[in-house]
Design brief:
With 188 residues, the chain is of the alpha/beta class. It has one domain: Alpha/beta knot (3-Layer(aba) Sandwich). 37% of the residues lie in helices and 19% in strands. The chain contains 6 helices and 7 strands; from the N terminus they run H-E-H-E-H-E-H-E-E-E-H-E-H. It has a 7-stranded parallel β-sheet with strand order 3-2-1-6-4-7-5, sandwiched between helices. Strand 1, helix 2 and strand 2 form a beta-alpha-beta unit. The protein is globular, with a radius of gyration of 17 Å. The protein starts with 15 loop residues before the first helix and ends with a helix. GO terms for molecular function: RNA binding; RNA methyltransferase activity. Keywords: Methyltransferase, Transferase. InterPro entries: Alpha/beta_knot_MTases, rRNA_MeTrfase_TrmH, SpoU_MeTrfase, tRNA_m1G_MTases_N. It comes from Salegentibacter salarius. This is RNA methyltransferase.
Amino acid sequence: MKNRKSKNSELDRKSVEEFKEAEKTPIIVILDNIRSLNNIGSVFRSADAFLIEKIYLCGITAQPPHKDIQKTALGATETVAWEYAENTLEVLEKLQQEKTKVFSIEQAEGSVMLNDFKAQPGEKIAVVFGNEVKGVQQKVVSASDGIIEIPQLGSKHSLNIAVSVGVVLWDLFSKITTNNREQSYMAH
């Protein structure tokens, strides 16, 4: 059979314990007032896929356990560390005090296109994704260390939040793991 699809048993899936013990990708996701429970579940699933360190659920963003989050998370709420915080700005300030660079994912003045963004080796970063209608709150954008914009060439210039998270996490994950491989290679 040509290009036989892999069986689940062949995918080297981590158990919940193996996931929790695994070295995480130094990325934190902050969800700023996300309305859709399905989007929240999808974000958990993407965070699981890339071994993301933590998710902050802020403002009106719902928290597990909830059947509509579970429906799309497929168990990722059990693996990915998460915390609820009422105030997104306070989470930003706390992370910045811990030397984490915080970037809002938004269309704004002074933004850097995602394809041009350079992840600094050894730097922990947090990315803020905003409300499906209003985006990231202006006060959060203003307090961020930078703004990353997803290049879009069509007529809408709007992506679903879950799609945006997938695009950004994949891009950052690939840049960070490439940097780590290059550093490891140069150390030998």
